[in-house]
Amino acid sequence: MAANPDPIEIVTSHGPALVHPRPSDADRTGALLLGHGAGGGVGAPDLLAATSAARAAGLDVYLVEQPYRVAGRRAPAPARQLDAAWLEVLAHLRAHVLGDAPVVVGGRSSGARVACRTAADGGARGVLCLAFPLHPPGRAADPSKSRLPELEAVGVPVLIVQGARDPFGMPPAGPGRTIVTQPGDHSLKGDLPGVRAAVGQWLTQLLTIGT
């Protein structure tokens, strides 16, 4: 098996980000950018399962490590900084690597929120959300804590893969929004083959319809 390409350092207005390329296993049909959770990294099991599915479906995958993680901090940067750095990374990749290839964006937890908030500005074909944190644990009854508006604002197809016992809640289905429930909690470790299958099927359909 060929070694993975070296990470790409991209300087953003909030410090350097690292992008970890994972080339497609087949003829390229597009690209998938994936972001990590607030306190985790790009090696999370569900991100790796999604990466495997995307590569099999013909997408080059780019795992994006936000500047605060590159700097060694676990506490996430403010949302506006996360979004700005993400869009700068995407713009750099479009200019130097991706060209006019269709781009799907996504991530797990906090990374999924970033992908949703920036989907329009980034020209995304679709958004993949792994363990979308609908509300903080124990705050389901407080409408002011809901992140549903971030999902509702997305104007392209969305797949949400969610653990049945996720303490961050279960997002509702909606127009253009598909929910796939998996066993387990916020980690999505309960059925990683199921995660791969759901992501692979959705990506294949998304890019077939978009051609």
UniProtKB/TrEMBL annotation:
Pfam families: Abhydrolase_11 (PF20408). This is Alpha/beta hydrolase. Residues 31-171 form the KANL3/Tex30 alpha/beta hydrolase-like domain. Keywords: Hydrolase. GO terms for molecular function: hydrolase activity. SUPFAM superfamilies: alpha/beta-Hydrolases. It comes from Occultella gossypii. The keyword Hydrolase applies.
